[in-house]
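ok so dumb question maybe but i'm new to this and my supervisor (M.) told me to 'just get the structure for alpha-L-rhamnosidase' and walked off. so i did the thing. is this what she meant?? sequence i used:
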Amino acid sequence: MSHRPPQLIALALVLTLGLLVAPMSSPPVAASTDVTPVDLRVEDAQAPLGIDVAQPRLSWRLESRERGVRQSAYRIQVAGSEAALLAGDADVWDSGTVDSDASAHITYAGPDLEPATRYHWRVRILDAGGAPTEWSSPSWWETGLLDDADWQDAAWIGNPDSPRSPDADHPAAPRFRAEFEAQGPVEQARLYLSGLGYSVAHINGQRVGTAVLDPGQTDYSDTAFYVTHDVTGLVTEGANAIGVELGRGFYGISTDNAWNWNTSPWWSDPELRALLVITHPDGTTSTVASGGDWGTTLDGPTRYDEVFVGETYDARREQPGWSTPGYDGAARWDRAEASPGPDGELRARPHEPIRVTETIAPVEITEPEPGVFVFDLGVQIAGWARLNVDGDAGTEVSLRYGERLDDDGLVSIPQYDDFHTVPRAQTDIYTLGDREGPQTWEPSYTYKGFRYVEVRGLPSAPTTGTLQGRWTHNDFASIGHFDSGSDLLNTIRGNTRRALLNNHQHIPTDTPVYEKAGWTGDAQLTATTASYEFDMSRFHRKYLDDILDSQLPSGELPTIVPTSGWSYEGAPGWPAVHGPTPEWDIALFTLALNLYEMEGDVQVLERYYDAMKLYFSWVDARVDEDGLYPYGLGDWVAPGGDPPEGPVLSATAHVHLMAAQLTEIARILDQPEDEAFYQARAEQIGDDFNRAFLDEESGLYRTPGVEEYRQTSNILPLAFDLVPDEHVEAVADNLVADIRDRGDRLNTGVIGTRYLLPVLSHHGRTDVAYAVATQTEEPSWGYWIELGNTSLQEHWQADTRSLNHHFFGSIGHWMYADLAGITPATPGYATVRFKPYLPSDLDHAEARTRTVRGEVASSWRRDGADGLEMEVVVPPNSTGDVHVPLLGQGTGRVEAPSEAEFVEERDGYAVYTVGSGTWRFDVA
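this is what came out, is it supposed to look like this??
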């Protein structure tokens, strides 16, 4: 085996992010004043409200119409007011001029920040020639409650009649209320709220905020979230009232389930902590804090809620005015009692909330049985339905949600009983109240995965206005675009996006129907695809912290995060995931490295480095006498069922990858002793791997005792740089031969599929990769579309359990990184590599994505058999490393801008270095 120094994720950054060539230096540029710092962010959010980071990190992008724009220095000013900032009075912090081209994750280095305080900031930069820009438009951030003392007298409270055991009868959703006087005009009001598991707050009868399923799922034994709300417009001088209703979420699941959520160490009935701070024009403040003086009741209309079941809502029990002052039913409410609250640290929610992002009208309504109506939304979504109905009080309407229909045209949820013991699956029940006119209702504390809603009990024949789908997911920005000459690829990409969104519900889940679990393998397999499509920065950091919370002192990691304790060694449950599962556990490494590569964030490596080392020590202690790691799930859901080779080859390859990753991270963090240690382990594991699995005579990898050729067994060594140089061509040729023999079909599970298409493209077989990607016979993404699917399936075969998974969505990475050719050549896109791989049967492709330095774009279009038009966009403060496909032509046939610096001809490409701007190249 060749023992060249490992690249930063072997393939997860060699294939995944294309680190194949050293970055080029940018040409000198003239000073430019046509440069503006824009998109100011704090902790990766625009104007965040209520962050609790002691030293927040500041970022910006540059905007310019000129080419070759570079930043040579920056200066940041922070002030206590916008007026002071605009006057040049940086009374909080002035960084001074800092010689640096960094524009992301600059750590605030001023005095300690005060809680519940707004800070205003701006930035200016010096361009390459030393000319300063104008100051950016001012922005701000506002701190939340920085430690427990800042909560003042706000206590955790609960309802005294709530049961204290998951075995007790499931009670109604508790409500809490308090009335208060605002003594004088209101200049500002902030509500700091943690309602666990989920909460909906009202002030003076108006709902607070637009988020749903707040504040977010965590391992509540270690971490719980609160949210800061600007309620200035809701609080008035004089009499006011606040009301909060709580749902159970994952905090208090009471039904039996495969993952033991009902025996979680944090299990509790819903609890509330709230602090309302009102600021008056004279600068004085008054507060309203949750405590024993708040009223509470279990007599509200939400009679039942459970995330795997649904909700029961009785509109006859509504309490009009319950969150307004002077509510006449308040005397019948009990007093709230102090409750212990979660054991975990209470932190400001760091990631985007879940919101209703789209309301979808049904495309068809059928009546498979008299009085039973099925609404078809036309697409798979996660969320719930909004019901609009008019009828007599007491009329009960049930809504059953599912991804498919049975032969009778009714909603079917196969295999649900294999995982849950529930009174009903994915079903809401609404009982009409006695108010006049149409009634509109939607659930608040559960979400479902579905395309179809089966409705029973409607008092009259429905119309398309009777029910709409409400699509919910974490509301992160969409930053990606991909389009090509293949309608099939474009549809696959759209289905991939939908699958990703449906499965991002505070954690990256595996299915919104059956499990709603944060399988780490799913997360790591689609991390880069998601990062091209969406702004995942805050979400992935949050999930990495979830992984950190789940790690045991021994270093062990569970396969679902958060976990109730399920999948640790010795815990009850499915034995296949007890102990090491390297292809899943590597999520800790992959997500951190992805953030580093995409954003240039060294601190993310520093934060998780010790946890990576601890895990590696734990798994490495379990090596067998042959130097192998026979653990885990292997190439999960490969065609035909469990793969015959078992997990040992895949697991060992991934432990080698971890060692290679730790080698590179140690180098980045200047830890030479660690670097040498992990380098030696990577080499030894590689030698043991090849000794066990490489058939040198045949030029392929196989597990002893398994005669069948296994594609994944050969994909992973190619992807992870494990194949000795003299065998690379033979291993690649054998892989291609097997694919061709199968009629251009893959034979891989989720692990092999992640790397299959990049491996083929990077070994000169893009036509084969394209043939596999556009296959329409089983197994393939196109086959799913032939079946009528609008998301991604769990299994390749038609009779799969779930139609709403995302772990096969790794194909999206290949579209962006290889077909369009966009990868960060250096971390944070300081240098952008444009290197498209062109299938002969595709006439054009284009993609763009927003990076920490601005938008990056690439497009190419064939011009006849041998011609090509290629255009790239390099953001300001970046350099472009442009590889123009020669299509068999010489470099003399390339028409390039005069400012583009020709470097060399390499592997069928003409390579150029360019500065920022838009650049077009033509191959005549």
